[in-house]
Each structure stands twice: as C-alpha cells, then as structure tokens.
Amino acid sequence: MNNTTRAAILIRGTSFALASVLVMAGFFGCAKKSETNTAAQPESVTTVVAHRGDIAERLTLTGVVAAKAQANLSSVITGSVLAVNVNVGDRVQAGQVLVRIDDSTLRAQLQQNQGSLAGAQARLAQIRSGAGGTAASTNANLDSARVAYQTALANARRNRQLFAQGYVSQVAVDDAQQAAAAAAAQLRSAEVAAQNANLGGRTTSAAQSEILNQQAQVAEASGAVALTQAQIAQAVVSAPFSGVVTQRSVDPGTLAVPGTALVQVSDLNPVYVNVGIPEENLPYIHPGTSVDVTVESLPGRAWHGVVSAVNSATTQGTLSYLARIVLPNDEVALKAGMVANAAFIKAQHRNVIVVPRAALFQGANGDAVYRLAKAPECKCDGKAKLTAVVRGLETDTEVEVSGAGIGPGVSIIVQRPDTLKDGSLVSVSSAGNMTQSPAQASK
Q: What is the number of helices (H) and of strands (E) in the chain?
C-alpha cells in the first residue's frame, strides 16, 4: 500500500469519528433541551379565593320525631259501633265526634233507673209527711195534758183550803187529789210520746230511722241514674284535642267492649324530636340551644328549632341524656317515628379567614396550603407558594385558617396534581367562587 492510499484511509477514519462525535453531541444537546422544556411546563390547578366569613363547628346526633300529644281512644262500654266518622290522615278539632257506639240498651236502663228514683223520692216524701203529722198530734196531746194537770192541781189545792174552812168533806179532798195524780200520769205519758215523735232531738225514733233508710235508697237510685247517663255520654267518642287521626282500628258493626281500641289521635304541630345526648356533649346543649333538623326521607328540607328541655338523668339502659327539641310542623310533613338528624352548634367564630377543606394538607411542618403567587419569569398564571397555616374550626366543606401570607382575596390552590411542590409553575384551569383575578394574587 502506497503512501497516497494510507493517507486517504486515515482521512476517511478521522472524518467518520468526527461525524460520530458531532452526532452524539447533537443528540445529548437535544435531549437536554427537551428536558429543560419539559420541566418548564406549568402544572394545571384549580383555585378559590380566601374570604372572611362566619364558621360554625356542628355536632350532629340522631333523634326520633314524636307527637306533642297522642291519645289512643278505647271503648269504655259494650255496644255495637254505629259510625266511624274519620279516616287515617284526617285533621280533627278538639271535641269533634269520631266514633258512635249503640247506646239503646243504656237508654232503656236509664229509664228504669229514673223510675226507681222517682219511687224512692215519693216514698221518702210520704214518710216525712206521716212523721210530721204524728209529731203535731203528740205535741197537741202534750199541751192538753199539761193544762189538765195544772187544773187538777188547782182543784186539789182549793179543796184542801175549803176542807180546812169546813166547807167540803174529806171525800171531796181525796177525789181532787186522785184527779191530780191521774192528770200527772197522763202528762208524763204525753211527754214520752212527744219525745219519741220529736225528730230534732238526740234520740233517734223509729220514724227518723225510716226516713234515713229511705234517703239512702233515694241516693242509691240517683247514683244509678248518674252512672247510666255517664255511660251514655261515653258512647260518643270525641277528639280530646286538635290533631291528626294516625290510626283507625274499627269499622261500623264491630262489637266494642271495654278496652277495644277505636282510633288514635296525634297532635303533630309542633312536634318533638327526642335526641340522646352523650355526657361529653352536655356542655354544648341546654334549653334554648338552636338546632337544625333534617330527615333523610324528606331530602332538601330543613327545620329550625330550639331545645326545650334536657333530662337531668340518663335514659334507662343508656348513658345518654334525653334532649327534647320543639319544631313547628304546620304542613304536618314530619310524622311521629321518623328518624331525624339534629345539628347543634358546638362552636362558632365570626369574621375569620375561611378556605375549602380540600385546600388544606399535612405538610412536613404541619398544616399548610398552596397559595398562588406571581411568576414574572413565566408566561403562566403564577407559581405555587407553600404556606404554613394554623387550623381553626372546620365543617364538612370549609376550614378556618390563619397565618402569614393568608388573608382575604388570596388565591388558594384547591385541586392540584401530586407532583406539585413549592415554587412549581401553575396554570389555573378553573377558579371556583373567585372574587379576584390571579393577577391580583399576593407575591
């Protein structure tokens, strides 16, 4: 191989090597450029604006709706049900007739009892009239006996005086004395008769005993009449208070006997919600505490009421204290037995910084959020700024925060990729409830 050939081969080799070096250099340069371009791509995030507002931490407990008043009306007499004037769901007023029971047998009994009463009253009047006549007669006899006795005594005294003067004989004196003795005996007899006939005295005579016995019979007959009248009144079953018929247990023709369930009436406006309060939550709940109530079977509706009472002793078989909530129920949408959720305000802060709970996360040094800061070096919406915060009250959707760099109008990143870190460039894909533009975000 001559020198010319060797020189040509050497030149080709050198050119190939140089070309390879240039190709590799270009490859790595392009790769580095591509890597730089990829790192500069902003992350897509969603933001909201922190604002001042009120926030309340709530305690939610389960309770049961109960009627303000509920009456299970039963029969107290025996008889066939003649009419049932209401159906379940009907609204009734206090005193409205709900059920009628046949009272024909009772009315016949009433007539019989009234007849017995009239007979007893007539017999009492007769006895009193006879006793009054006997008393008058005995009193008259007593007066007559007294006059006769006084006359006999006077005749005896006069005859003794005339005998002493010699005008009458001893026989006349003796006759006058016997007449006075006889008059005295008749007076004593009249006094005894008058005493027995005297109904106002302390001694109970036969006539007085008969009158007392008859008075007892009159009272007994009168009681029988009153009892039958009360039973007749109970044949008409009326609403004890205004409310709603929540149960109907009989139809016309049913034989009602004492204890037979007829209808149930419930007063459902207002209603009570009975909630068991654990001991640790008692400091937050007391009479007058406001509460919001919802029922899962009535979605989209809420009722506001207050606690009317909290029991001072635990409910039997539990470790909770019964709290009673009063709720207006004009439309009677709440029914007795419904399960309700009662939300009590456990704590409340006003005019504080509030952000969505989704924006809060646990950083290396505690609670933190990402806020949106300006990034003049980038044609994007800004960059993520890691900001430590102090957590306050929170609800299911919001949380109270405080800390340096957090204030009203600061844009807070809510939805973010897992790769987001402090200083990452970001572009805002959507801004929820925004009240200021990202350009106004703090540095």
A: 4, 20
| DSSP-based helix, strand, coil % in the chain, nearest 5 | 40, 35, 25
Q: What is the pLDDT of residue 131?
A: 60
Spatial distance between the Cα atoms of 160 and 66, rounded to a whole number of angstroms: 105
The answer to whether 58 and 397 are in contact (CB under 8 A) is no
Which pLDDT value is given to residue 134? 59
Read off the pLDDT of residues 349-406 as tens digits, 9 standing for 90 and up. Answer: 999 999 999 999 998 889 999 999 988 878 888 999 999 999 999 988 999 999 998 9
Determine the Cα–Cα distance for residues 299 and 431; give it in Å rounded to an integer. Answer: 29
DSSP-assigned letters across all residues of 28-67: HHHHHHHHHHHHTPPEEEEEEE-EEEEEEEEEEEEEEEEE
Q: How many CA atoms lie within 13 A of 127 on its CB side?
A: 19
Say which residue the tokens 């006795």 belong to.
149
Q: Which amino acid is at 307?
A: V
Distance CA 6, CA 83 (A): 132
| 400 CB-near residues (< 8 Å, 6+ apart) | 55, 349, 352, 353, 354, 391, 392, 393, 394
pTM: 0.55
In 3-state terms, what secondary structure has residue 135?
helix
Q: Which residues, in sequence order, are bridge partners of residue 343?
A: 60, 292
Give the separation between CA 340 and CA 338, rounded to whole angstroms: 6
Short-list 259, 215, 214, 217, CA closest to 234: 259
Residues with pLDDT less than 70, the chain: 1-40, 130-138, 140, 167, 196-207, 432-443
